[in-house]
Specification:
By secondary structure, the protein is mainly α. The protein has one domain (about 5-195): Orthogonal Bundle (Hypothetical protein af1432). The chain has helices spanning about 10-15, 25-45, 50-60, 65-70, 75-80, 85-100, 105-120, 125-145, 150-165, 170-195. Helix 3 (about 50-60) packs across helix 8, helix 7 packs across helix 8 (about 125-145) and helix 8 runs parallel beside helix 10.
Length: about 200
């Protein structure tokens, strides 16, 4: 299944129309662009970053969804405490299945290790991609609000994502988060004036 046709189903939980929901491939491209920009800026600030690894992680971080689709958090809540474990298991199996189809075993193992490193979030590169993933989510919230979707509806995902971003303690991500918060407030202020 092409990731171009897999919707980010979590948005449907937030009452976003199926016609407006972004695809997984659109999200992955955006995450890769944000992660690349972050990596280059962090390097300019004299910190070593493996940019190639960052790009691999960003492009592969949702690979499993080509087989599992986007398993939303709302769905996992119905599964109770075992939901997160089940999702992890399904994603691992899906990644193995997709990578087994590669003709080159060495490349498949490189991709497998890259995905594992991303999941563990233990390296600077993995933290950059996790932050890029969160920042893209917040940019999408702003975009949906521009389209007329309710702030009240989207606030829970904004707050949850902001909390996750802050846990990574990546100064550049914190700077961008503050900019996004200001941009969102400005946008909301304009919308109130128009009404």
């Amino acid at each position: 299944m092409s990731l171009k046709r897999v919707p980010r189903s979590g948005w449907i939980t937030y009452r976003i129309s199926k016609h407006d929901v972004e695809s997984v491939s659109s999200h992955s491209y955006s995450v890769a662009t944000i992660a690349l920009t972050m990596s280059e800026i962090i390097q300019l600030r004299n910190r070593e970053v493996d940019v190639e690894k960052v790009l691999k992680m960003a492009l592969l971080h949702d690979l499993s969804e080509s087989m599992t689709f986007d398993i939303s958090k709302a769905y996992l809540r119905y599964l109770g405490r075992e939901g997160a474990k089940l999702k992890t298991h399904l994603e691992r199996k899906a990644n193995s299945r997709v990578l087994a189809d590669l003709d080159n075993r060495q490349l498949a193992e490189t991709f497998r290790m890259t995905i594992r490193e991303y999941v563990s979030a233990s390296s600077l590169e993995a933290k950059i991609v996790h932050c890029a993933d969160g920042l893209d989510l917040l940019l999408q919230v702003i975009e949906y609000e521009k389209m007329g979707y309710s702030k009240a509806t989207l606030d829970p995902i904004w707050k949850e994502t902001r909390s996750k971003l802050m846990r990574y303690k990546l100064p550049l991500a914190d700077e961008w988060l503050r900019r996004l918060q200001r941009a969102r407030l400005v946008q909301q202020s304009r919308r109130r004036r128009v009404k």
